[in-house]
Amino acid sequence: MLRKLVIVTTTTLLALVALPASADSGAIHDVRGDTVNAPAPKAGYDIVRAGWGHAKGGRLRHWVVAAGTVGHPRTGMGSLPDLYINVPGQVADNPTCDYFLQEVPPGVGANTTSHWKYYVFPCSNNSPQAIAPVAATRPTGHRIQLVFGRHAIGSPAHYGWAMAFPSDGDNPPIDRAPDAGFKRHVLH
Length: 188
Hints:
There is one protein chain. The chain is mostly beta strands. The chain has one domain. The chain has one helix at about 1-25; strands at about 25-30, 45-55, 60-65, 80-85, 100-105, 115-120, 130-140, 145-150, 160-165, 175, 185. The protein is globular, with a radius of gyration of 19 Å.
């Protein structure tokens, strides 16, 4: 009887200790129909949910769900989101963010593959150089998921993030989640 009690107590304590490490994940909702100057079909640029969490090996995972069909990360065709990251204490020469994740066509810069590929870049007013590759997948026609190592953004204890469908030039994004500021992701 005592042995069973010790096993149950130990298992419960281990679960509680592991909880904070896996607890910082979740999703935010975005209002449907709030796109600005979206090309047709607009629904593919209309964010309805975006989320954060962790993948295997401690990698960071972010995802976005659109009301309509999103593009495919390997082809570069259709609506593809960018992820913007703000790390407290870091200062980039572009005040909008410290890092961003964006797709790169084949044969351009660090992408030596035969398909489009996402990379982590520093936010810079100059031509930024890719820091690390990103695993981009399209689990469904409405969802894109981005996974990358925390070392690519300096292994911070926490950071802010925002997912957006960018527009051309310096225009505001077509849609963004959250609509303003950054959502906090705690790593430690």
